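Fold Annotation — chain and its backbone

Encoding — discrete vocabulary of local shapes
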Amino acid sequence: MKTSIKFRLWNLASAIHRLLPLSVGKKKQLKRITIQKLGIKMPPFPNSTHDYLNYIQSICANYSNLTTPELIRQVHGAYASRSFSSKPLVSIIIPVYNNIRETLICLLSISKIEDACPYEIIVADDFSQDETEKILGECLGIRYLRNTKNLGFLRTCNYASSYMSGEFIVLLNNDTIVLSNWLDSLASTFVTHKNVGLVGSKLLFPDGRLQEAGGFIWKDGTGWNFGRGDDPQRPKYNYLRDVDYCSGASIMLPKKIWDTLGGFDNFFEPAYYEDTDMAFRVKNAGYKVLYQPKSVVIHVEGLSSGTELTAGIKKFQQVNHQKFVDRWKDILNTHGITDDSIKQQKSFSRQSKGRILYVDNPDTTSKSDKAIDFPALLQKMRLFKELDFEVSFISSVNIFPNSQADEMQNIGIECLYSPYITSVDDYLKNESGQFSFVFFSHSPTEVDYINLLKRYDPQVQIVSNLTHHT
């Protein structure tokens, strides 16, 4: 069975498992028995990915091994010694309710990144009943706000945003660990791209697997966390991309847009679907919603609100789902009912006019003397992106990501690389029917590839240095 099919089956089983009306303990027991009886195993990852997973797990372990008194000491020390800008570019708002230990880990992770973007931190305490007030109330370098009663997640975020002084607002869950370049990557997206209204981070599970690379919303209002449970280093999860929404665990918006839209809509209080509704309102106002893979956050999903759909605040997930569908039904009617609709569009973007593949030889993507061709190649691909085409690039000799691959990903080009792509031949066979145009540039074997394409994908338009094929 292909790895991609295994992942789909695993993700489907996981989704059903989450919806079962059982306690967390019963669900864990059921999962353990099912795995034992059926011999279910997670699909294998490449060795390079295992190294990355181990790296993420080691980060989580390092924080978990710290005692709470040590966390308090380090957080107070880190923020007391930091010099913060009187005019921050970004206001990081962290809404909290209890779970002081997780909040401390989140704050400590922010203090350790070396991002250049000037920021302020606002901890918005929704009337916690643990030691949050005692520990953070006198913490220098952090603005601590405390509600006089429990207002819920949505109203707490809106209230805290009235105190921000930055040009951008970042909403960050307290059950997160941010990695280096998290903040700079979010902020730079608004500088390098036009008409952007909201940008979200790549979310990882604590074991390193992908939690979300942006999200899709289907006709019935249900969501798909793109790539959930998959290898976070796969090419399709590592380039800037238009999405329907990004989970509110880590998102950035310009303050002007946030204020114009009035923040989260109280229609969805106390919580759930407010972030999805915000993404739809941002798009409805004419702005883009983008997923930024260079901004990476480890997220302990469900810590704040639990996982039981019939108890506590979690029950509002179903209530607000219907509210969301009623509000956006006209747009949702164009979204399809499964991920098959994305396949039919031959794109991961709903705005796409089609997909284009560039096949080039290594000279234009290496540091050789011929690398002068790379800017011209990049400009061509950029122009197609501006015309709303999705663009992918593959070298005729497989390469690992380098600085030039990074440039492509930053402008929204899917850069295909080892070990996920074994050869151009196999890729052209497996992806037949997915591309509107295939461009060849300086490829010594392009004649062979053209013949291969004509056999497997006779409808594709082929453009080479020699001629144009149909």
Notes: The radius of gyration is 23 Å. The longest strand covers residues 288-299.
